[in-house]
UniProtKB/TrEMBL annotation:
A GO term from the CC aspect: histone methyltransferase complex
Taxonomy of the source species: Eukaryota, Fungi, Dikarya, Basidiomycota, Agaricomycotina
Source species: Lentinula detonsa
Segments annotated as WD repeats: 52-93, 94-126, 136-177, 178-219, 231-262, 284-307
Annotated spans, Disordered: 1-41
Coiled-coil positions: none
Record's keyword terms, sorted: Repeat, WD repeat
Domain WDR5-like beta-propeller: 52-341
Tagged with keyword Repeat: yes
Comp. bias regions, Polar residues: 15-28
Matching PROSITE patterns: WD_REPEATS_1, WD_REPEATS_2, WD_REPEATS_REGION
SMART domains: WD40
Protein name: WD40 repeat-containing protein
Pfam families found in the cross-reference section: Beta-prop_WDR5
């Protein structure tokens, strides 16, 4: 990391717990006791509030709805489950994919969900009705990642066919096929106004694309070229947050091709584990880890704020609530649960 980089201010970033007895095949939320109190110098402390049980195979993706009322989950059991984000209660289960589901994304109005699967399809679901409304065909191998643009009229997807596809949601047709990478594409996202797409892949490259033309505007790569697991724009789109399989998360200024912040301490050498920005006034970065823990860093200082313990396997996916200090996390085979961690402010001890 370049230590001379000044702080990123707010306007730059913004424009051993016991569960209740639940059978593993049931959908249920279990309240759980509070975590160990924070260290004296911590102001925000997360503690576990609910354990959500219902998936029978690893959960691959978690996404809060835009209004924060609902948490969507998907996984290798071919199911999408919708949960009340405030109570942890199951609301609905969506079925239709023929193979495991790798990713899900909400439309910005919260009315639709998109999902992608090893069955090579992109599917769109009506949240209110709980029904599938479109099945998009075109990828020639497993589809691994998906996201909506802010207007929710376009989707971007990527997968093991090494392409990035841009879809017209209304017509259900491919608009562009970008020969994006030389290895499977692991993550795709639009920026805040939909004019740019960012992608990353197992080839270690991060690429910025012009949405309209499909032209590659910039390629970022770290000197050691680690496998890239996940990438997303900062809220104002001036930076991209990149998770790589060298147990490092980097914040890049893609205009200058400079890494301005580095977050370390977690373990990530095997799986594609995402990192997220907080959406509240307390600026932090969150990631899962292969040591079964959730890591929370101060955005500015890159210092660890808290390590959340309780899962019993690799944490494959996390998400942060759009308006509250709530983190959702989910783990692999030895666990299969989703946990909701609620943050509270604590006063430093003098």
């Amino acid at each position: 990391m370049d230590q001379s980089i000044p702080e990123i201010n707010d306007h730059e970033m913004q424009d051993g717990t016991q569960t209740n007895s639940v059978a593993p095949t049931q959908d249920a939320a279990s309240p759980i006791p509070s975590a160990t109190p924070p260290k004296p110098d911590q102001k925000l402390c997360f503690s576990p509030k609910y354990i959500l049980s219902g998936h029978t195979k690893p959960v691959a993706s978690l996404k809060f709805s835009p209004d924060g009322s609902t948490l969507a989950s998907c996984g290798a059991d071919k199911l999408i489950k919708l949960w009340d984000a405030n109570t942890g209660e199951i609301l609905r289960t969506l079925e239709g994919h023929e193979e495991g589901i790798s990713d899900i994304a909400w439309s910005f109005d919260g009315e639709f969900l998109a999902s992608v699967s090893d069955d090579k399809t992109v599917r769109i679901w009506d949240f209110g009705l709980g029904t599938q409304v479109r099945c998009l065909l075109g990828h020639t191998s497993f589809v691994f990642c998906v996201n909506y643009n802010p207007n929710s009229n376009l989707l971007v997807s990527g997968g093991f066919d090494e392409t990035v596809r841009v879809w017209d949601v209304g017509r259900g047709k491919t608009l562009k096929v970008l020969p994006a990478h030389s290895d499977p594409v692991t993550s795709v996202a639009f920026n805040h106004d939909g004019t740019l797409i960012v992608s990353c892949a197992m080839d270690g490259l991060i690429r910025i694309w012009d949405t309209d033309s499909g032209q590659c505007l910039k390629t970022l790569v770290d000197d050691d070229n680690p496998i890239c697991s996940h990438v997303k724009f900062s809220p104002n789109s001036r930076f991209v947050l990149v998770s790589t399989q060298d147990s490092t998360i980097r914040l890049w200024n893609y205009h200058t091709s400079r890494c301005v912040k580095t977050y370390v301490g977690h373990t990530n050498r095997t799986y594609c584990i995402p990192a997220c920005f907080s959406s509240t006034k307390d600026k932090y970065i969150v990631s899962g880890s292969e040591d079964h823990k959730v890591y929370v860093w101060n955005l500015q200082t890159c210092q660890l704020m808290q390590v959340l313990e309780g899962h019993r396997d690799t944490i494959l996916t996390i998400d942060t609530h759009p308006t509250k200090d709530i983190i959702a996390s989910a783990a692999m085979e030895k666990d299969l649960t989703i946990r909701l961690w609620f943050g509270e402010m604590t006063q430093p001890i003098e």
